[in-house]
Design a protein that fits this description.
The complex is a heterodimer of chains A (about 450) and B (about 400).
Chain A: E1 5-6, E2 20-23, E3 31-34, E4 44-46, E5 53-54, E6 59-63, E7 70-72, E8 77-84, E9 90-97, H1 116-126, E10 133-135, E11 149-153, H2 164-167, H3 172-185, E12 189-195, H4 202-205, E13 211-216, H5 224-231, E14 241-244, H6 246-258, E15 264-270, E16 278-283, H7 289-292, E17 301-305, E18 312-314, E19 326-331, E20 337-338, H8 383-386, H9 394-402, H10 406-411, H11 419-428, H12 435-450
Parallel strand pairs in A: 1-13, 2-16, 11-12, 11-14, 12-13, 15-19
Antiparallel strand pairs in A: 3-9, 4-6, 5-8, 6-7, 8-9, 10-14, 15-16, 17-18, 17-19
Helix pairs in contact in A: 3-6, 11-12
Chain B: H1 2-11, H2 25-35, E1 36-37, H3 54-83, H4 92-125, H5 132-142, H6 150-165, H7 178-189, H8 191-194, H9 220-227, H10 234-239, H11 251-264, H12 269-289, H13 296-302, H14 306-309, H15 315-322, H16 333-353, H17 360-397
Helix pairs in contact in B: 3-4, 3-5, 3-11, 4-5, 4-6, 5-7, 6-7, 7-17, 9-13, 11-15, 12-16, 15-17, 16-17
Classes of the chains: A alpha/beta (about 450), B mainly alpha (about 400).
């Protein structure tokens, strides 16, 4: 039984620089990286040393907690650097790519005929396993669990996010093969949530043996957490729901159909500072330099792998994150603003009408990274609730995290949330509370104490 | 503007850690961030942020208070000259000028004393200066009688800031609305200056002037509580040509403020609306049972149409500007409806049943401030119970 979801609480931030539906051309980058920092709570261990030659699909690192979960090289080439930060924390394993990629070979098999154990093993071996994430906590799924359902959100409503109907174009067979594999992983259902605001792609509509739900409304309507909350909620920490992105289903499909790990994704290069925002075919872990060079205005910019709400800050020489489908470029708002709090503020985003941006509702905004104020105690109430479509009290939950009351956090529904679900609360917060960081602190605490 | 920026940059090192005026850093920081929003960028979480901050929020509330303030100043002058029988000879400007001479010192004292204490606390604790007092400082003079001696005002402010706010941890942590704490302090500490029929209109006379015969300085509520009738028409009450605390008399100006607050999304319309509903409910009940009251005065007071209760006294001002204070009100959406309704309900009940406190809204809001956390607690418990129930159902099914 499919269920149409109409989300009313939320807001679409009218950010300038939406990507045109074109695939641009750029030189292949020379350097690629696997970044352990893309994954929540991962303790990485090395499979390789600097100077080793690898093929695309050869393992580079594995998880200390479960050595079956490993990450593989997106290209063939030489391991040139293991980048480390404070306390020797591993930040990236960098590969200098060959001009022609050679792939590690996997058997070509139809997942329909494979047993569940064989599929799990293939996904683990090939480095595709980390695409599967779980709720609660947003961590990588455990190969020992069987989820009660799997969710694939085929709609992304975050500001300037990649249009899911566009990026899967022409990948129908791979997508459907991927879905067949996923269906074997759960005893429950596979849920596809598609846009209810326009016609969804045939790739999604023609998928068989899954539940398709139409979703409409402002961001965060496209967040998988919202869909899980409405369709198959997580009520205790032993409930496991897995989720992944449509483009990663395609990579999994490619693994079974073509017998190789080819992490090609269509990625949107967007943002107010991009001259010609459009899509590019990129490999996961690709260095962004060849894509952004000559495409960006000004030199006081922030490069973000992912969207502006949840993405991670990278440098001009940074790498595309493991789950990211956008590179967003914004101006850094590091100039103080004289009497900034008194100005009418028509060029700033606000859900409040105390700034006059609302006078021009159609205008797209050239926003920067300024905080527009300083952190304060909670004062204003009711603003989180306007952008938070969960049956959960957001402020009360955050307060319970701040006082580390684990029992109360659990009662208030922390298992249903990860950072992306509360990102808009953080954006609209008058008191500039670090909402996402606080929520993650609570999730870590709950995971550590209760598992 | 660059000039201001460069001055700030130049003096900043004097206040940094280890420098001469290290201890005064919160003060410097307060002035610096007042003059310019610092160029901080988002370093965790979302990379873009809403343009609003607490300064802007407080500033918007002050803008919403300005109509009531200006009208209050005019009305102070108008009532004064009316008492002297000179109202017809005085222009709009004369009234405003007289009012300004009376009201502006109150505003100055309120801000001066309040901010000085805030600064002292921030320096003592090494905290940043919070913006909360900007609104409180404007509210306090607006809810006091014009003839309250300034030193009493100052002491009330001290009490409100120290006991009402700082002992709980400052802005965002207080249980009671600080401005009402100031008023309730003055009310109980100096009752003769806060109630009766002598304090609402300034009747000081210059040479050759005298108060007109048969003058009464009682407020509408004072009249009703003692005699059951009032000399003022409903239209006078609505427009505000009546004696009362400085800013509370004109419902029109308060509605203008309410409009600004609701439009900006800063004041909770849920609290305002449910407060009005609560007042109508209590007023309606009184109307039904008016004839059973003991004394004829009380019968008359209870028979005042429910809608008229809302345009007299401080009800409108309280429900728009004080009950909606987000820190001391209920914080959950459902809680706001319950809280607002009860504020309105008790405000009318207290003012009618207890002639010693003709202004019920003050006590009603303070009472509900105390109960707001309890209301929220039960609202949140309801949400938790619902979640537990769902979890149990699921376990049974599985």
């Amino acid at each position: 039984m499919s269920k149409d979801l109409k989300i009313t609480k939320g807001v679409n931030i009218p950010l300038k620089g939406k990507a045109e539906q074109l695939i641009g051309n750029a030189d292949q980058p020379k350097v690629f990286a696997v970044k352990p920092t893309d994954f929540v709570g991962l303790f990485p261990k090395l499979h390789v040393k600097e100077g080793v030659e690898v093929k695309a699909g050869d393992p580079l690192i594995y998880s200390k907690d479960d050595n079956r979960i490993q990450w593989v090289s997106p290209v063939s080439g030489e391991v040139v650097e293991i980048e480390r930060g404070d306390k020797r924390k591993m930040l990236a394993v960098k590969i200098l790519a060959d001009s022609n990629t050679s792939y590690r070979e996997f058997p070509v098999e139809s997942p329909v005929e494979m047993a569940r154990e064989a599929i799990v093993k293939r996904l683990l071996d090939s480095g595709c396993w980390p695409f599967l994430r779980q709720r609660p906590y947003g961590t990588i799924a455990s190969p020992d669990d069987t989820p009660k359902s799997i969710f694939i959100s085929c709609i992304n409503t975050a500001p300037l996010s990649a249009d899911q109907d566009f990026v899967v174009h022409g990948q129908e067979e791979n997508f459907h093969t991927g879905i067949e594999a996923l269906k074997k992983l759960t005893d429950g259902k596979v849920h596809l949530t598609v846009t209810g605001m326009s016609t969804p792609s045939d790739v999604f509509k023609k998928t068989k043996g899954v539940e398709i739900h139409k979703v409409s409304g402002p961001h965060p309507a496209g967040n998988v957490g919202v869909h899980i909350h409405q369709i198959d909620p997580i009520l205790k920490n032993s409930d496991k729901v897995w989720y992944l992105n449509p483009q990663d289903v395609i990579i999994i499909g490619r693994l079974f159909k073509e017998g190789k790990y080819d992490p090609t994704r269509v990625v949107a290069l967007t943002g107010p500072k991009v001259k010609n925002p459009r899509y590019y075919k990129m490999l996961i872990g690709a260095q962004i330099t060849p894509y952004v060079d000559g495409q960006v205005e000004g030199n006081n910019n922030r490069y973000i792998s992912g969207d502006v709400l949840t993405g991670s800050k990278i440098s001009h020489e940074g790498f595309l994150g493991f789950y990211d489908e956008e590179i967003t470029v914004l101006e850094e708002g590091n100039e103080p603003e004289i009497f900034g709090w008194i100005k009418p503020g028509g060029n700033k985003f606000s859900i409040s009408r105390s700034l006059f941006t609302w006078v021009f509702p159609k205008k797209t905004l050239n926003l920067d990274t300024s905080m527009h104020g300083e952190e304060r105690a909670f004062v204003v109430t009711g603003e989180y609730e306007r952008v938070f479509p969960f049956d959960i009290y957001p402020v009360q939950l955050l307060k319970s995290i701040m006082i580390e009351d684990i029992e109360q956090m659990e009662k208030l529904g922390i298992y249903e949330l990860i950072e992306e679900d509360m990102a808009l609360c953080e954006v609209v917060c008058t008191s500039k509370i670090p909402v996402q960081e606080t929520l993650r602190k609570g999730l870590d605490l709950a995971k550590q104490e209760l598992g | 503007m660059k000039f201001l920026h460069s001055i700030i940059d130049k003096v900043e090192p004097n206040f940094e850690k280890g420098a001469k005026f290290e201890k005064l850093w919160p003060l410097f920081d307060g002035f610096k961030t007042f003059a310019m929003v610092p160029g901080h960028t988002a370093h965790t979480g979302a990379h873009i942020r809403d343009g609003i901050d607490l300064k802007r929020t407080m500033f918007t509330v002050i803008v919403a208070l300005i109509p009531a303030l200006i009208f209050g100043m005019w009305n102070v002058g108008y009532q004064h000259y009316l008492a002297l029988g000179l109202a017809n000879e005085m222009s709009f400007i004369d009234n405003i000028l007289f009012g300004a001479i009376k009201v502006i010192p109150m505003v100055v004292i309120s801000y001066g004393v309040g901010l000085a204490i805030e600064f002292a606390f921030c320096i003592y604790k090494g905290h940043q200066i919070n913006e909360g007092y900007l609104v409180t400082g404007m509210l306090i003079p607006l809810i006091m009688p014009v003839d309250l001696p300034l030193w009493m005002l100052a002491i009330s402010v001290v009490f409100a800031v120290v006991i009402g706010k700082e002992v709980f941890g400052g802005t965002g942590m207080n249980i009671l609305n600080p401005a009402l704490t100031a008023r309730v302090f003055a009310f109980f500490a100096y009752p003769t200056y806060m109630s009766g029929d002598k304090v609402w209109i300034n009747t000081s006379t210059a040479e050759g002037q005298s108060v007109v015969d048969g003058f009464s300085g009682a407020t509408v509520l004072g009249d009703l509580a003692t005699s059951g009738t009032t000399q003022y028409s409903a239209m006078d009450m609505f427009l505000g040509f009546i004696p009362g605390s400085v800013g509370e008399t004109s419902v029109v100006m308060i509605l203008l403020g309410a409009f600004i607050l609701i439009l900006a999304g800063i004041g909770s319309w849920q609290i305002m609306l449910s407060g009005v509903l609560g007042a109508l409910a209590m007023g309606g009940i009184f109307n039904l049972f008016a004839e059973y009251a003991i004394s004829p005065e009380q019968q008359a007071f209870m028979a005042v149409p429910a809608w008229q209760q809302m345009i007299m006294g401080g009800f409108a001002f309280g429900i728009v500007f004080m009950a909606t204070d987000p820190v001391s009100a209920s914080q959950t959406p459902r809680g706001k409806w319950i809280y607002g309704f009860l504020v309105g309900f008790f405000a009318i009940m207290i003012r009618v049943f207890n002639p010693a406190y003709p202004e019920g809204i003050m006590l009603a809001i303070l009472l509900m401030n105390v109960f707001a956390p309890l209301i929220d607690h039960y609202v949140v418990q309801g949400n938790i119970k619902r979640r537990m129930k769902r979890a149990e159902l699921q376990t049974v099914k599985a």
